[in-house]
Amino acid sequence: MDGNTLAPTFEEIVLPHLDCAYNLARWLTRNEDDAQDVVQEAYLRAFRYFPTFHGSGAGAKGWLLKIVRNTFYTWLEAGRQMQKWVELDEETLPQTSRLPDPERFLLQNDTAVLVRRAMEGLPPNFREVLVLRELEGMSYKEIAQITGLPQGTVMSSLSRGRGRLREALASVATSLA
After folding, report:
1. Total domain count for the chain?
2. Which of 53, 78, 99, 110 has the most CB atoms lying inside 10 A of its own CB?
3. What is the pTM of this model?
């Protein structure tokens, strides 16, 4: 890097990962408003400590998600109430003009609600590794760096989390039958 090249900015390196940060926070908090609060606090922390970040754009995602995770646990320890029930937000439902088939839509929506309820019933440690692996596509090594767990523990947590998710899905489906 020559003397005329500027270092990448916070906006260039960290801001592109806002969706990932919100996704993790949403699954951990189980509430949209709380997730927004956690992400806002995490971004404030990230901005404050950005001068100490010496990675590249590729490492920023893991660095930020670790901050989101730590912010969530700080928030949780502060005694915030976690919401137990899934809220259906009418704004998130597709408009009727885009619905190809009402029966198909209901089946897909029912499946999404079942998965959401089952995921939200899992302990946070299982939710976080499942979200990071299955939704964010992160490697075991990246998850280990974010969570501070050994890779083997990440792998076993994923296995146990998937098993608990299967059990929760079966339980939720049975309760609705």
Report:
1. 2
2. 53
3. 0.69
